[in-house]
Amino acid sequence: MSRVALVLPAVDRPDATTPTPLGRLTVPGRAIPEKTVWVDPAEIARLRDAARDVATRAHAPYSRFRVGAALIMADDPQRRAITGANVENASYGGTICAERTALTQAASLGLRKLELLVVSCVATLDAPVADRSPCGLCRQVIHEFGNRDPETLVVVDGGGAGALGDVFDLDRLLPYGFSLGQS
């Protein structure tokens, strides 16, 4: 299958400011321009299937919430599908999510530029995207390995017939990602 153009719509939310007797409170707005990215639906489907498969091997004895992730790194000349599943721990703090497991695997191979990540929460495929998208910690780690050329994309498995998933770029996934002043 060939690549197709995908238009990520513009987001334009102005600041919302409320005066108080002790000073104003501002809810920051955000302006994200429309952008067109190129995706290969066959590659997304391949990663989705790999994420679903690895989710079946997740170690989730406490939550029973099995998650799988599969990714491709832009700096991997072999374009391998690197996978990871969530691994829970009785201490909870020792738990690692599928997205971070896959990214840790990629980093241990010396890879640093995330191109495409597909996440699958097989038990919640038809749930709202908030119930099946990466957690905040994973979003920050994704941001750390994120890339602008080519644009890092995250696809959240959408389940359902005919659905490949919901697509996010870095700006839409984590609008205010922490970066220590680096771009």
TrEMBL record:
A GO MF label: identical protein binding
Pfam family, one: dCMP_cyt_deam_1
A GO cellular-component term linked to this record: cytosol
Keywords of this entry: Hydrolase, Metal-binding, Zinc
Domain CMP/dCMP-type deaminase: 42-181
InterPro entries: APOBEC/CMP_deaminase_Zn-bd, CMP_dCMP_dom, Cyt/Deoxycyt_deaminase, Cytidine_deaminase-like
GO biological process: nucleobase-containing small molecule metabolic process; pyrimidine-containing compound metabolic process
Family membership: Belongs to the cytidine and deoxycytidylate deaminase family.
Name of the molecule in the record: Cytidine deaminase
Organism: Thalassobaculum litoreum DSM 18839
Lineage: Bacteria, Pseudomonadati, Pseudomonadota, Alphaproteobacteria, Rhodospirillales
